[in-house]
Amino acid sequence: MTPSELKAEITRLNAPYRQGSPLVTDEFYDALVDELEALMPIDEFEAFLRTLTEETGDTKHDRIVGSLRKFKYGVLAPLERWLKRYITNRILTQPKIDGLTFMAVYREGRLYSGATKGDGNSGESITDKLMYILPQTIPSEKAIEVRGELTLTGDDHIALGFKNRRNGSVGLIRRDEINPAEIVCCKAFAFEYREMDSEVGQGLGRAEQLVMLESLGFTVAQHTMLDVTGMDVETLQELLADHLAESRKTAPFSMDGLVLCAPETRSEDAYLPVELVAWKKPLPAVATPVLDLEWSTSRGQLVKPVVLLQSVDIDGTTISRVTGHNALYIKNSGIGVGSTVTIIKGGDVIPKLEDVPVMVEPTLPTDCPSCGSPLEWKGVDLACTAEICSAATLKRVAHFVKNRGIEGASETSLENWGITDFATLLAWTPAEGYKSQQSFMDQLTARVFHASPVDIFTAMGCVGLADKNMDKIISFCGSLDAATALMHLTGLGDTPPLPAGIGIKMLNNARKTWMENLSLLANIVVDERYVGAPTLLNKEKLSGSLSGKSFLITGTLSSPRKSIESLIVAHGGKLASSVSKNLDFLIAGESAGSKLDKARQLGVTVIDEATLHSMIEASATEPEPPKEQVEPTTSNPEPVYKQVSLF
To answer: How far apart are CA 647 and CA 631, in angstroms?
Structure first.
């Protein structure tokens, strides 16, 4: 991949990781970053790394909170250079806990404020959460800053319904409302102490900081001093590997490596510290028998395998299933009932197949597991030959409602409600007395029938084209009409200018679904319930009374919170995650908590639910532009060679 493509892919994968739901293993992600580093000047690379952070927040840090450089097992040169430059005879090792970084400030012996790491300059305020987790008072009157990691320990993530410890810690901290019984399950492990009246780079060394933190009542993870006098880098690497393996056996948290430094290392005011580094080695592979293969049909009618395993535990997570990638991989690897596979789990997140020490002759399906139609090979996959497969249409609807921000509508729920395709979605009405169904209808009204044609279209997705690339193509062309014309032109063999990162093959793969989606869009737009909204390209702003205004909800309202949020977004408003001086409106319901107090302190306008509806009604009385009609298209429309006005 080119540097631009690598940066785009790394950025795409970074956001889900920060939210606690990574899409790939740490090793895969790190490999992309390493590949990019080899292609870019160091200053440009470091500038890009600074963008790979959480969103900025309303709490400014006293200094830059940086991220660690990562050294990997088997790559000796960087470790050797660091060893020669910064280590005399001892290395302090600490566990690299896979959790959520926090920064806490204490003044006059009391917890004053706390925040996430954010972008390194400022983070999201989590003081209200830390009150339940950190010591509220300490035996010191100095103004100090404490840095550490929040994580769930033991099997608490299982009891709380999270898939792993990091996912659980991020989920609990990100919640708007606090459940004291759950939030106390988050444990804080402190690893850095700094007196705020001293210059960064002065004060206690790292080993002394850990002693000080323990004396003040903070929990400090087990750490070790290694004597490396005269040790060569190969020996050091094996020593670190053994130490990491032993630490993982007894640690109550998930570790994805070690943090290394000299014991006298002091705090650095840098995005990428040079004296403090992370050293990582993947968890060893674990062997387990294959119990069965589970096949399911995707949106693109490809039949994908999941390998069902005899349950094994890796670093606190029970693993019983893993992706089988595709049918050809299963066939060539000899994976089936009676085979044995080894699996690894990078970063305590996503398990993957590593090897197949015991192979069998696998039995591949011949018919679609959803509709029973015959299967045929399509590249590396088996594909359903039906013109319209029921599983594929259901997955397309589920993908659509998820992309429109509609919650509480899993594939199982949709199927139970009789929604299996877009036709049944538009014809569906909720059963009386079922709150979940009424909530779904409220969200559907706000997020679909009040949305712009382009937003509806891109939410449908295209087989063979990432959702973000649909936005990219439409923005590049200036309208959905022009983007459709581009689709036609490339289908005729023309090679017009294309957006960066978009190729002819990509458009060819997506063309059939693109045209189908135009027909589906037309059916939505001509529905009598459709109100519409301006088409926003390049994040233009709405002109309604909620336009550009930020809203946050606290307390209990008469309607479901998600329904209110959908209405806000549908009328041009933005949703905030916390109270700050930049918040425009706090919507306060019954039992409003600390957010209401903070909003009043900051002078934020506080409104009730009725006032919000009044604002929305006021915007609805403003003159509307004429609504342009969309004629339903056929599945095989005539080629378009110029921009035509469909929407």
So the answer is: 9
Nearest CA among 27, 34, 47, 46 for reference residue 6: 34
Q: Model's pTM, two decimal places?
A: 0.49
pLDDT for the residue numbered 178: 84
Q: How far apart are CA 171 and CA 18, in angstroms?
A: 11
Given pLDDT bands bounded at 50, 70 and 90, which one contains residue 166? confident
Residue type, 13: L
Query: Would you state the structure tokens that stand for residue 146, as one six-digit string?
Result: 């404490």
* DSSP letter (8 states) at residue 587: E
* Token pair in block for residue 487: 């689709």
Q: Give the number of other Cβ atoms within 10 Å of residue 62's Cβ.
A: 13
By CB atoms closer than 10 A (0-12, 13-18, 19+), residue 379 is exposed
Q: What is the pLDDT of residues 494-520, one digit of tens each?
A: 777 888 778 888 888 888 889 989 999
Which residues face 188 on adjacent strands?
Answer: 150
Two structure tokens written together for 240: 């670190």
Give the end-to-end CA distance of the chain in Å, rounded to a whole number: 36
CB-CB contact of 293 with 335 (8 Å): yes
Q: Which CATH superfamily is domain 59-280 in?
A: DNA ligase/mRNA capping enzyme (3.30.470.30)
Coil vs helix vs strand at 378: strand
Dump pLDDT digits (tens) for 379-389: 888 999 988 88
- What does the pLDDT read at residue 201? 59
Residues with Cβ within 8 Å of 179's Cβ and at least 6 positions away in sequence, in order, are none
What angle (nearest 5°) sits at the alpha carbon of residue 197, between those of residues 191 and 201? 55
What CA–CA distance (Å, rounded) separates 223 from 206?
Answer: 11
CATH superfamily of 286-384: Nucleic acid-binding proteins (2.40.50.140)
Top-confidence residue, 164 or 513 = 513
Each residue's pLDDT tens digit, 17-72: 655 556 666 667 777 877 887 787 766 776 776 666 555 556 777 777 878 888 98
Cβ-contact 602, 579 below 8 angstroms:
yes
Nearest to 533 by CA among 405, 441, 633, 620: 620
Residue 257 has phi, psi (to 5 degrees) of: 155, -165
Q: Using the 8-state DSSP alphabet, how is residue 373 labeled?
A: P
| Residues 281-293 pLDDT 10s | 877 788 999 999 9
Write the pLDDT tens digit of every residue in 294-334: 999 887 889 999 999 999 887 667 889 888 888 988 998 89
Nearest to 346 by CA among 452, 430, 456, 257: 257
Pick the CATH number of 550-620 from 3.40.50.300, 3.40.50.10190, 3.40.50.1100, 3.90.660.10: 3.40.50.10190
Burial of residue 512, with CB atoms counted within 10 A of its CB: 0-12 exposed, 13-18 middle, 19 or more buried: middle
Count of residues in the chain:
647
Compute CA distances 506 → 22, 208, 382, whole Å: 25, 56, 20
Q: How far apart are CA 560 and CA 596, in angstroms?
A: 19
- Distance from C-alpha of 53 to C-alpha of 457, rounded to nearest angstrom: 30
Q: Is the pLDDT of residue 435 over 90?
A: no
Residue that the structure tokens 């039995």 belong to: 363
Q: Can you give the residue ranges of every domain in the chain?
A: 3-17+28-48, 59-280, 286-384, 390-525, 550-620
